[in-house]
Structure formats: C-alpha cells, structure tokens
Design a protein that fits this description.
Layout lengths: L2 E3 L6 H4 L15 E8 L2 E7 L6 E4 L13 H4 E3 L4 E6 L2 E6 L7 E6 L13 E3 L5 E4 L6 E4 L4 E2 L6 E7 L4 E3 L2 E3 L1 E4 L5 E4 L5 E2 L4 E4 L5 H22 L9 E6 L6 E9 L2 E7 L8 H16 L8 E2 L6 H18 L6 H14 L15 H20 L5 H12 L8 E2 L1 H12 L2 H13 L4 H11 L13
Parallel strand pairs: 1-21, 2-13, 19-20, 20-22, 23-24
Antiparallel strand pairs: 2-3, 3-8, 4-7, 4-11, 5-8, 6-7, 9-10, 10-17, 11-12, 13-16, 14-15, 14-17, 18-19, 21-22
Helix pairs in contact: 3-4, 4-5, 5-7, 6-7, 7-8, 7-9, 7-11, 8-9, 9-10, 10-11
C-alpha cells in the first residue's frame, strides 16, 4: 500500500517562529547581492555598505533530510579571510580577523531539498529550469560579542542574472531582476510557461501525463473564475504557479507546496501519482483551489491578527469547494463539508476560536472557519446572492487598498458584512460570542446560527422551507 505523504506549507505563517528580516534604516544604503549563473556555475557576490564583525542569514533553518545547516552542504566562500560558520542555529559570514571585507563572493550549488519550516532554497525542474528563493540571500549584521544578530540593519537588494538569457520574475521576463522582496522565487532557464489573462504557470514536462493535462485545464479555469467573481488580484504582475515533479518515488503520494505573495509552488512526487486516480485528482484540485484563493483572501486583503485567520483559512476552504463544484459537475462537496463540520464540533467545545493560535490548535481555523463561512453563504443567499463567492467579493471590494480600504478584513468588518447580507444583528452577536467566548454546546449554537440563514448540518433539526 502506498504511503500517503501530504506536505503543505500553507500553515507556515501560523506555525513557525517569526523570522527576522532586515529593517529599512533611513538614508542607509542596502546590502547588494549579485546572484549570477554563467559558464563558471552559480555565484553570489555580497556588497556590504558598512563594516561589521559578521553578517548573519536570518533564514538558517535546517535541511529536513540531512538535519543540518543547508548552506554548509552547498556554499563555498571564495573570498580570502572569510568563512561561513554555523553558530547555534544561524549561518554567519565571519572574518578570520577584524571585520568582514566589503565585498564577499560565494560559490554555490543550488540546494533543491526540503527545509524545516521554511521554503526550499531551490526548486529544480526536470528540463533544467531552476527557481531560487530570494529570502535566503538576505543578511543582517552579526554582533560577535553577544553572538546574536543585530535587531536592525540595512535592507538587502538582490540582483539576479543568467548569462544564458532572460529570467522569469513575477510572471514577466527580464534580462536581470532587481528586487528587495525576500519572499519570492526567481526562475532561471528556458521554461515554456503557459500564460493567460490571469496567470503564468510553469509545469514540469515530466509530470505524469494525466496530471499535466489536469493542471493545464484546471489552473486557467481556477484563476479565471477567481478573477471574475472576486475582482483583480492586487499587486504587480499576474499570479504565478510553479509546479515541479520530484519523480515516481516508491510508496509515496505527495501533493504539497507553498503560497507566497503572487506565487504558488506545487511539488508533486510518488509512484501513487503515476496512474490517474480520483483521490489524487481531488487532492491536487483542492490544494490549488485553496491556495489560489489566498491571492485574494489573504493577499489582496489580509486578516488583522493570527486570532482572525479563520477568516482567510476557512474562507479559502469554502471557496475551494465551491470552485471545484463549478468546474466539475460530478463533484459534490457535501461529504467533505460534513467531515469539516464534525472536526469543528470536536475542536470547539469550551474553547474560543480566537484562542486557537495560543493552544496551537491550528486546524480549528480551517474547520470552524469553513462552518462560519457556510453561515455567511446562507446570509448571502437570503440576500439574493449565489454562494459564498458573493460574500467574499463584497469583503474584498470594500477593504482592498487599491480601492481606498486599509487592506485588512477585521472581525468587525466580517460581521458587518454578515449583518449587511442578513439584516440580523443578533446572528452577528451570537457568532462573535462563539469566536471570542466559546461554547459548551457547539452543535446547538452552530445549528441555531445556520437555521437563522435557512441552512442546516448533520445533527441539526431540519429547517422548514
């Protein structure tokens, strides 16, 4: 029997410790890093704007399989008098004596393997295409006396060049890409992307034929529907999807990836995906639909604090189910929603949803957020709407920055939209109590709220027409 492995990095922002990033100090020039691929291989040349005892890499998480620092496995410092050292859990460029030279060059072999609680340094495709994660070149000053990173430092400006030709960055081709965005990928090579009005996608050519056909069909439809129902995605450029194939590893079915600003990565692996099967198909569809929803509910508008992530995670869940139902008439989300309902009931007894982050009960945001979305969907339908998309579209439209909003959907914003759709102030009060105070009988209370918008769920009394 195949071993099921589902690796999803979407929870990254919730579950990993905060990663330090460089702070922009007024009038201070940035660190400049030139990352080049040419006949001599890969190199990164750091130009430091000031003297420092060392320069540390805030993103120094261990490699999952090797359980060690990944830079020591793939980086070689060429500049005399400088070495890369692992100090505690941080990679640091240190001078043998005195301060680090203002210019330091490193040769490296792209590390295309998993890290613990961070994005892969490189994504390798079977046609030679390779994507590098920008954030792993960002640095902060290192204080030798305290053996710690400085709390503030210059930003890191990165320049990427490929001697063989243009690069792909944020869905567009460039002869060189210059950025201070430390949370995205730059693509090297000569990929053959698919491009529509709403996305750019690179799909590994060795992806099993049936999965490749599915991606070529499902991705354009997904992003076209989201754009049609929710409006344009905020930010420059079109959303970009990078889908790699890690091979037919025996005993594995792995469908995972990560979501970044304007970028979705998909990593497929395992002999369980070689032949078409319904379970794998729905897994791939749901992952893409859920993560794709975050370009709108999570990036075009964000939540206010971690306690409110039920808005985006539960919202993305329900949007994904409704989108798949629209694309595939044979798919019925009923069974999945029934399972989600039971999961919410099991997790919410006497435990306020807003405190799920403190007790590390992250699944509650997904399960109960989906159930709350069903209440909102019912409210939208009582107001003449079609489905949950109408509720979310109104939230996005009224809060997005490019339309005069603050870019944040707070709980009060969400509840205000619920009242606007349902005209039911008491319903909003009940839901707010559930989120912040909890309940000793979640089935009773959630059933009552669903009934107020003409909806029901397993174990609830039937709602009269």
């Amino acid at each position: 029997m195949a071993r099921l492995v589902v690796m999803v990095a979407a929870l990254f922002a919730l579950v990993c410790p905060a990663i330090a990033t460089a702070q922009d100090t007024p009038d201070e020039p940035p660190v400049r890093v030139e990352v080049v691929y040419d006949a001599g291989g890969w190199s990164a040349t750091f130009h430091f704007p000031s003297d420092a005892q060392g320069w540390a890499f805030p993103r120094s998480n261990r490699a999952r399989r090797q359980n060690s620092g990944w830079r020591e496995l793939s980086w070689t410092v060429e500049t005399d008098g400088v070495s890369l050292q692992r100090i505690g859990e941080t990679d640091v460029l240190l001078a043998d004596d005195g301060t680090v030279p203002r210019k330091v060059t490193v040769r490296f072999v792209p590390f295309a393997d998993d890290l613990l609680a961070d994005y892969d340094p490189a994504l390798r495709f079977t046609d030679g295409t390779l994507a590098l994660f920008t954030g792993h070149f960002a640095v902060m000053p290192w204080l030798r006396e305290t053996q710690e990173m400085a709390e503030e430092g210059p930003e890191t400006e990165m320049v990427f060049r490929d001697a063989a030709g243009p690069l792909l960055y944020k869905g567009q081709r460039h002869r060189a890409a210059t950025t201070r965005d430390d949370a995205t990928y730059v693509v090297f090579g000569d990929p053959q992307p698919i491009s529509t009005d709403h996305l750019t996608a690179i799909i590994d050519p060795q992806t099993p034929a049936w999965l490749r056909r599915e991606l070529l069909d499902f991705l354009p439809q997904t992003f076209a529907i989201y754009a049609d129902r929710l409006g344009d995605q905020a930010g420059s450029g079109k959303p970009m999807v990078l889908s790699s194939w890690a091979g037919a590893t025996p005993g594995v079915v792995s469908q995972g990836g990560s979501v970044l600003a304007g970028l979705l990565t998909v990593r497929l692996e395992g002999d369980g995906l070689v032949e078409e099967n319904v379970q794998a198909l729905q897994g791939v569809r749901w992952f893409i639909a859920h993560e794709g929803a975050h370009f709108w509910l999570g990036q075009t508008v964000e939540y206010e604090s971690a306690a409110d992530s039920w808005i985006t995670e539960g919202g993305a869940n329900l949007l994904a189910y409704r989108l798949i139902e629209r694309i595939d008439p044979d798919y019925d989300a009923g069974a999945d929603l029934a399972n989600t309902w039971q999961s919410c009931l099991a997790m919410s007894v006497s435990k306020p949803l807003a405190e799920a982050d403190e007790r590390r009960d992250y699944d509650a945001y997904y399960a109960c957020g989906t159930v709350i979305g069903m209440i909102a969907e019912g409210a939208a339908q009582t107001n003449g709407g079609r489905d949950f998309f109408d509720f979310v579209a109104a939230l996005v439209a009224s809060n997005r920055k490019d339309a005069g909003g603050d870019g944040i959907v707070s709980v009060d914003d969400w509840l205000g939209q619920l009242v606007a759709e349902s005209g039911d102030e008491e319903l909003a009060a009940q839901l707010k109590h559930f989120v912040y105070r909890g309940t000793d009988d979640p089935q009773r209370d959630l059933c009552a709220m669903l009934a107020r918008v003409g909806r029901s769920a397993p174990g609830c009394a039937a709602v009269a027409d």
